[in-house]
Amino acid sequence: MKAPPRLQPLIDEGIIDAVVRSLKSGKEAVVYVVRCGDELRCAKVYKAAEQRGFQQLAAYQEGRKRRGGRDERAMKSGSRRGRAVQETEWQSAEVDALYRLSDAGVRVPQPFGMFSGVLIMELICDADGGVAPRLIDVDFSAETARLWYRKLVRDVVRMLCAGLIHGDLSEYNVLVDDTGPVIIDLPQVINASANHQAFRLLERDLHNLRATLGRAAPDLLDTRYAHEMWALFQASELHPDTPLTGAFELDEHTADLDSVFETIEDAKREQAARERGRVEAQHALDDE
After folding, report:
1. Are 87 and 109 in contact (CB under 8 A)?
2. DSSP symbols for the chain
3. 93, 186 in Cβ contact below 8 A?
4. pTM value?
């Protein structure tokens, strides 16, 4: 196929040899299958901020390291420089996480580098050499569900031990190759120690996996891995091979005020976004 404008410079520089086809268009990027020598790889082209559908970006940026106070001030002011810093940070977060998680033993696509805002990484294939399907598109038995759940929970533990939480993990961003599940799509990855919403997002990630795989193996629905591993993490007792039971007694007398307040703030932000959309739509009608 004809090379998209964002990929042509990579061909000119010899980083990739050809664009084979478009693979998928998601909420934050378009992914292409590209040829690099004798190998097929993925090229992830990030969309501009105004084109991305991912909401509540600020919740994921909390705790990320930046070059200095000037960048922080620029981002808070919403200046051109601040938007550029935010965009660079968003694009670099995934490739940084892929290298870090790959080193930690998490099954993620192998990264090959970021070039002019384009991430080149491993193409995950199935047993027949075709592009691996998403977990949502795969039929599986109860036995397989339990096996994949154990693998994914262990990968989440390894991520947490590496100081990271996926933040948007679900059946839509887990691929299945001939060895099992592979975690993808990490631009919203968060710092587990510096983000106040870390546990809420960890719990949501594991809830999504549990709900999907629990449809085939209902016994998985009774597990509470998020609470167990978070308690160990906070006590500095969580390690990549720490045995987990999936059982955890919640203190019903202690309210998680941070989660309550964040839920309220989420509702306020969503209401404000709806109101802005209503006003913009009305202005558009008035201009006609």
Report:
1. no
2. -PPPTTTHHHHHTTS-SEEEEEEEE-SSEEEEEEEETTEEEEEEEEPPGGG-----HHHHHTT---S-HHHHHHHHHT-HHHHHHHHHHHHHHHHHHHHHHHHTT---PPEEEEETTEEEEEPPB-TTSSBPPBGGG----HHHHHHHHHHHHHHHHHHHHTTEE-SS-STTSEEEETTEEEE---TT-EETTT-TTHHHHHHHHHHHHHHHHHTT-GGGGG--HHHHHHHHHHTT---TT----S-----TTS--HHHHHHHHHHHHHHHHHHHHHHHHHHHHHHH-
3. yes
4. 0.78
Which among 95, 109, 137 has a CA at the least distance from the CA of 40? 109
Q: 184: closest CA among 95, 65, 58? A: 95
- Residues 78-112: pLDDT tens digits? 666 655 666 777 778 899 999 999 999 999 999 99
Which active-site residues does the annotation give?
Answer: 168, 185
Backbone angles phi, psi at 9, to 5 degrees: -60, -30
Find out whether 116 and 10 touch, Cβ atoms under 8 Å.
Answer: yes
In the block, tokens 């991912």 appear at 54
- Phi, psi at 28, each rounded to 5°: -125, -10
Which of 101, 182, 168, 205 has its CA nearest to residue 135? Answer: 182
Domains located in the chain, CATH noted: 8-234 (1.10.510.10)
